[in-house]
């Protein structure tokens, strides 16, 4: 097969490009895209790269081997070299030729060669620039074809390749709470819609868009008119945690407790609630715990679930949900860690840390819990445990929901008995 990477791109037609790709990639289809370039500085380089139309890792075929071979003056130095591109670019197929590499260089020396290290950075930057150009000039192809197939590798690069983390972050796309289902936006598009006073980028990890839209963690952001990025997998969550910032804005999980959304503080609201209750002006449909009641209930909740709860406080960030846990480990990350741990045979090696609970002082369940905790302590304890487990479910932290079944049956029995008493 002719070394077409060393030829002038003007002298090669699509048919010859396609034939060479099928030869080196052992493929039967045409590539999604290609990059053929020549450079004289800082190194003499002739390179031809292909992006396949699909990759096999997602089909459970195992981790792919590197796909780029290294040459010097058309002499093969190393086939499928692991040193010429970072591991996250292992899906790239092609050939690289550099006359700056001595023909006598061995594969072992190539691994430690300063020239190879410099070549690696130049080639990585060139590929990222090519993808950036595709995203800008042909967004449909980038998002609909490339990103759909290779987003995982870009996120892997963000987590591994800190030299190019900023450039790679601009190539990431997400759904948000204000986009349509399937509509992907970049960080730049998200930031452009932010209110001037918003200094953070918010994200929420959930198994699906529907669950994200119905998450109790989203309630406060909708109330404040803040847009939230939706991510759906453990690698997404890990990527956000690794990025930490984008263009000077902190990237913050919606599950954190110390988020300032401009909603009235809890202390002020509690005092107002006390004043209204003292003067009898609180409407029935706006009932809420007084400051004293909230403090008593939080103390009781913490004491009752001492082995599971690190703290319990009142919050105004909730509307339709009775409680949430915050500042917890990510549910997606926990599932990934548990999967790895299970493969290693350690099923019980990941105990759940004590959680920080925030309760909604206006919710009927919380109001009811306050009213029965002294009159019916056994039932109140069962309800508190269920409220807590519901919080874990919402956060994706409950490893096995079957543990709740006996308690749920007890609660249903109480409901049925109560209904029968009302009929009599």
Automatic annotation (TrEMBL):
One of its GO terms (molecular function) is unfolded protein binding. It is found in: Mitochondrion. Residues 265-288 have a biased composition (Basic and acidic residues). Pfam families: HSP90. InterPro entries: HSP90_C (IPR037196), Hsp90_fam (IPR001404), Ribosomal_Su5_D2-typ_SF (IPR020568). The keyword Heme does not apply. Its main location: mitochondrion. One of its GO terms (cellular component) is intracellular organelle lumen. Residues 262-288 are annotated as: Disordered. Keywords: ATP-binding, Chaperone, Mitochondrion, Nucleotide-binding, Transit peptide. Belongs to the heat shock protein 90 family. This is Heat shock protein 90. The lineage of its organism: Eukaryota, Sar, Stramenopiles, Ochrophyta, Bacillariophyta.
